[in-house]
């Protein structure tokens, strides 16, 4: 199985970029992991929140292949412990999915079309984090999940 983390907008914090790169590199030993950025929309001052979500939604949906399974990172998604998230990934791998795509949306969330295309929603916390921080947290949690599945000492139970 391939895992892709799809994000709206670039990270402008060099420290976060470096940490994301560390976990992305580590993940190569476990799974084909891809981190893809959709560029920020230009000229959004004249767009309503709904219009911005629609335009970002089109960009997200255009990045998907027909066989991809789309999972949204959403505050109203399912909560997991790290161990339960590892189990979740194992079930996805066992189901024969070719590519599991996790998406971090823009500042206003997702369009109705993206919600309709999604096969699930995952929440990393009830707290709100910046979209840039979520990239690091999600990449680290995917890495942690694979170390759990391999019974490696990274995660302490």
What does the model show?
By secondary structure, the chain is of the alpha/beta class. 42% of the residues lie in helices and 22% in strands. Helix 1 (14-27) packs parallel to helix 5 (131-149) and helix 3 (82-94) crosses helix 5 (131-149). The longest helix is centred in the C-terminal third of the chain and has 19 residues, at 131-149.
Keywords:
157 residues, alpha/beta, 5 helices
Compact summary:
With 157 residues, this protein is an alpha/beta fold.
Structural class, from secondary structure content? alpha/beta
β content, as a range? 15-25%
Shape: globular
Low-confidence regions:
none
Number of strands: 5
Number of helical segments with 4 or more residues: 5
Provide the fold topology.
Elements: E1 2-8, H1 14-27, E2 32-38, H2 49-62, E3 69-79, H3 82-94, E4 99-104, H4 112-117, E5 120-123, H5 131-149
Parallel strand pairs: 1-2, 1-4, 3-4, 3-5
Helix pairs in contact: 1-5, 3-5
